[in-house]
């Protein structure tokens, strides 16, 4: 199926839409049935039947169908947040006594959740590469979790190499694909078992919703939907699902614009004397660019730079000098954002991930690249003096 068609039309011409340009938002919390027997059958299959908002809903279901098709997966389950999806997914795959391998840097709250699971007897180990995986794997290891490009440092993982290694050892693989979106990278086609996304970022695209999704084979999604999804209660609202559907309509156009502007800004920063390094996989100078070009069809506009300083005060001053970039968390919307982990991330998490003090994350929005480059140049003047 064509990705543009999936984003714009999949499921939107069906009879229940009644010809509406925007698919209806089903606001009701409960659905009724003609008989007690029908209700009982629906409850037993609440991952697919409409019973109660906490299970699923026609509007949410349409968003799930689109997302599954984009990732080339059988099923998708949407959650009320990205962490809802991540927490439920990990929980569905491990039990007390199990061990998780974490390859490379991952989203900070994911690490915090894995630490939280320690009180239930689930342990984890962070490793940098497959050699580290070879050293850290245990008889109790059940899951390998990773991102590519990785959190903050944007290192590229050879996905087929990792999934092949994991499959030979009987491990389930889960990958966070938020950075690329399903348009630019399709990990399920490279052997990943389950893919998670924060829908709050590029897919939503307008900084007006919080949501998450997990996508994969029905054999893994169905038990998760009937158990962790229901019990954790992190249900996506139909209103947020409608925003996901609208975001998907413009996703192909927006991602091309993000790619263009992000690469222009990264190219400027790469040669600036006030910058030690630029971590953008789309730059030919990036160590993982060759692998990225092989397994990705495009590049988003989220990347990091390392300022030529080891001072938190200098990092703060740089952020404060920016006039067009707004200081804030999250990313993927129209507006350009800047954040510095040394000022906002728990130090133990930052140390685990190997993130230096001078690292600054940029989310390049849809404003003109020249405007953003000028803003960064003026803020860097003091550091390069």
3D structure, described in words:
- The protein is an alpha/beta fold.
- Helices cover 41% and strands 15% of the residues.
- Strand 5 (172-176), helix 8 and strand 6 (194-198) form a beta-alpha-beta unit.
- The radius of gyration is 21 Å and the shape is globular.
- The model has no long low-confidence stretch (mean pLDDT 95).
Task: Please describe the structure with a list of short key phrases separated by commas or semicolons.
16 helices; 12 strands; 385 residues; single chain; seven-stranded mixed β-sheet; alpha/beta; five-stranded mixed β-sheet
Give a short synopsis of this structure.
This is Trans-sulfuration enzyme family protein. With 385 residues, the chain is an alpha/beta fold. The chain has helices spanning 3-8, 36-44, 58-71, 82-93, 108-116, 130-136, 159-168, 181-184, 218-226, 228-232, 238-270, 289-295, 312-321, 341-344, 347-353, 369-380, and strands at residues 75-79, 99-103, 123-127, 141-147, 172-176, 194-198, 212-216, 275-279, 302-307, 326-327, 337-339, 359-363.
């Amino acid at each position: 199926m064509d990705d543009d068609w999936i984003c714009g039309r999949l499921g939107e011409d069906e009879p229940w839409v009644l010809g509406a340009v925007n698919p209806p938002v089903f606001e009701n919390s409960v659905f009724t049935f003609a008989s007690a027997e029908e209700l009982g059958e629906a409850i037993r299959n609440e991952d697919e039947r409409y019973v109660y908002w906490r299970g699923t809903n026609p509007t949410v279901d349409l968003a799930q169908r689109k997302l599954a098709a984009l990732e080339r997966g059988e099923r998708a389950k949407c959650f009320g947040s990205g962490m809802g999806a991540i927490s439920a997914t990990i929980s569905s795959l491990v039990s007390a006594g199990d061990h998780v391998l974490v390859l490379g840097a991952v989203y900070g709250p994911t690490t915090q959740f894995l630490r939280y699971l320690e009180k239930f007897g689930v342990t984890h180990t962070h490793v940098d590469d497959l050699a580290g995986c070879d050293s850290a794997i245990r008889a109790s290891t059940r899951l390998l979790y990773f991102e590519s490009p990785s959190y903050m440092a944007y290192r590229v993982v050879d996905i087929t190499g990792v999934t092949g290694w994991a499959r030979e050892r009987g491990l389930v693989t889960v990958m966070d694909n938020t950075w690329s979106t399903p348009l630019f990278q399709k990990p399920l086609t490279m052997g990943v078992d389950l893919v998670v996304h924060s829908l709050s970022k590029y897919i939503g695209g307008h900084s007006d919703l919080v949501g998450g999704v997990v996508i994969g084979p029905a054999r893994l999604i169905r038990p998760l939907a009937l158990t962790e999804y229901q019990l954790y209660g992190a249900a996506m609202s139909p209103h947020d699902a409608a925003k996901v559907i609208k975001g998907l309509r413009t996703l192909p156009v927006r991602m091309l614009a993000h790619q263009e502007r992000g690469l222009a800004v990264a190219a400027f920063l790469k040669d600036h004397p006030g910058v030690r390094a630029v971590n953008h996989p789309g730059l030919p100078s990036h160590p993982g660019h060759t692998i990225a070009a092989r397994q990705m069809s495009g590049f988003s506009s989220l990347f990091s730079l390392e300022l030529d300083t080891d001072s938190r005060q200098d990092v703060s001053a740089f952020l404060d000098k920016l006039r067009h970039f707004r200081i804030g968390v999250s990313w993927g919307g129209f507006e350009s954002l800047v954040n510095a982990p040394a000022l906002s991330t728990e130090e133990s998490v930052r140390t685990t991930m190997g993130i230096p003090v001078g690292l600054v994350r940029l989310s390049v929005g849809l404003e003109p690249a020249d405007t953003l480059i000028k803003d960064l140049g003026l803020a860097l003047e003091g550091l390069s003096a």
